[in-house]
Amino acid sequence: MSYVFDEAKQEAAQLVLDALSSQGLRLKDARLVPTKDAQHGSLASSACFGAAKQLKTTPPLLAEKLASKISLSQSRYFASVTAMNGYLNFTYSQQFYYETLSQIASSSEKPTPTKSPSSYAPYGSNASGKGKTIVLEYSQPNVGKPMHVGHIRSTIIGDCFRRLYAFNGWKAVSMNYLGDSGMQVAKLLLAIELFQDMPEPKNEKIMLEYYVKIHQKIAEDPELEKKARQLLEKIEVGDPATLKNVRYIREKSYQAFQRNYDLLGVSFDEVIGESAFIEDSKKVVQEAVKRGIASKEKTGETLAKLEPQLPNTVLLRSNGTTLYLTRDVSLAEYKHQKYRFEKSVVFTAAEQNLHFRQLLRLLELFGKPYASTYHHVGFGTIDLPSGKMSTRKGNVVFLEDVLNEAIGFALKEVQSRQQAYAPETQQEIARSVGIAALKYSVLRIQMEKNIVFVPEEAVKFDGNTASYLQYMAVRAKNVFRKGKISQLPSLPTSYAFNSKEQELVSLLSFYPSVVSSSANSFSPQALCDYAFKLATCFSSFYDACPVLKAETDEAKAARLHLVKSTQGVLESALGLLGIQVPERM
User: Fold this and answer.
1) Residue 112 has pLDDT above 80, yes or no
2) Can you tell me the distance from the alpha carbon of 406 to that of 460, in angstroms, rounded to the nearest whole number?
3) pLDDT tens across 283-310, in order?
């Protein structure tokens, strides 16, 4: 789909390049970006900075010369072009604002007999992924351990990108790869065997007590580590009695995981555990040795040869048990065989960057055709003010407790406003607002940064928060509710948009670019930043420009389009972040 903003940008670029060509210089890029200050125009080109040196002049002089040569008599989207400190600044015409709002209104129309679903595309989306599949792996909690607040980052980031890629036409497959093998499960089985006086491990909180206690015991008696390894070997060889206990732990763990996913509004197309890849991963090791990618050491381990690019790493322990990396190679092949993806992305903490670099290198050495399309996106950790969370020490904050606390805090806020809402409506609003506050507090932070989690800060309701964005979307809805307007009037073709209106339309115009760049650069914070700017701009417009009591019928119609467009784009952006907008607040 071609958007008005993109067409305008192409027009301005061609005007700049043609003007440079008239000076005997051919460039490929006009370097156009939206201006930061509307008083300086709408789009600015910095092409003169690079061109001036080649033409043996200065950027300001070249910009002045080009501005005088550019004719806008035939321009569709620009009213003027001026030179400013070496930049060429283009100012949109009224036609640009009219066509942008018309396009948003058209994109908001649902499929009809004359407008088929295949031709319908919501505003901001594109067809970049049409016919393509992307597999997104995220959340990945370990069974037998609680889902703590640190898990929220992978879970909601992955869900955000599932939404983004699906919005852009991809078949987005969401996968949850559970840690249901390895030493953490073996140690939990050992704890259940040893601590017969403890309650039945029927939920994640009791399991955490077992897990903390077994680590304390192992520290006192290192011989217990050997027993845990023996249980791990039983898991790997498929001992029926041991696997029955593993299934029990997995079932009880996932019941707790699912409660969190239900609260977060997150779902998966496939949930699978590491244990499914144990046998295949042993074949991977055999193949690696056969190809010379790995070798069996004198100590009994099988070592992958990745030096000098990366550190060598163990693929198989001396007792014949596999590791995360071994199983991840099998998982990658499984994904490709099942989904034939064009792209596969794994979201984990950046602490695992080396692990995934080693994995990608192994896929290359195995000659996998999908190696270059297999990606890892790392992000910073979520820590407590007291320091890093540790399941072994029991120093964790349960995610479910935090989510319920956020909902409770939101409920108090809703009740304090003394609106005449029924109790069930209050609960519905509180759930939407509380979960949104927590999600947004995480998604708005740059991915690579660590987060120190303070519950009171995460669920704030003022400033750059989800509740502010939700409130602005509800405020837009209320205009139509208050005015009893069920159908949007026609957009007047000759209306002259004022500066506040122009600023808002300009911001709405490059929403498609924000959606595209957020997906391509894996930057949920860019979408958050845009949503906050849009909400702030709408608030400024709303305070300055009466809508229902506009000075003319034309102004009222145009402003109703602005309100509806802002509501739609703001709800769309929040929806991509996994945030719902309640009907009332």
Assistant:
1) no
2) 9
3) 999 999 999 999 999 999 999 999 999 9
Q: Would the pLDDT of 387 be above 70?
A: no
Please state the CATH superfamily assignment of the domain spanning residues 134-274+336-383 in this structure: HUPs (3.40.50.620)
- Which CATH code of 3.30.1360.70, 1.10.599.10, 3.40.50.1970, 3.30.1490.20 fits the domain covering 4-92? 3.30.1360.70
- Going across the sheet that includes 302-304, the strands are 294-296, 302-304, 313-316
Query: CB burial class (10 A; 0-12, 13-18, 19+) of residue 201?
Result: buried
Mind listing the pLDDT tens digit for each residue in 451-461? 887 767 766 77
First to last CA, the chain: 35
Task: Give the phi and the psi of residue 22 in degrees, each rounded to 5.
Answer: -65, -15
CATH number of 399-576: 1.10.730.10
CA separation for the pair 272, 181 (Å, rounded): 12
Helix (H, G, I), strand (E, B) or coil at 452: strand
Phi, psi of 168 (to 5 degrees): -95, 20
Which run of H or of E encompasses 32?
A: strand 32-34
Count of CA atoms in the C-beta half-sphere (13 A) of 357: 12
pTM check: above 0.85: yes
C-alpha span between 122 and 163 (Å, rounded) = 13
In the predicted structure, residue 116 carries a pLDDT above the cut 70: no
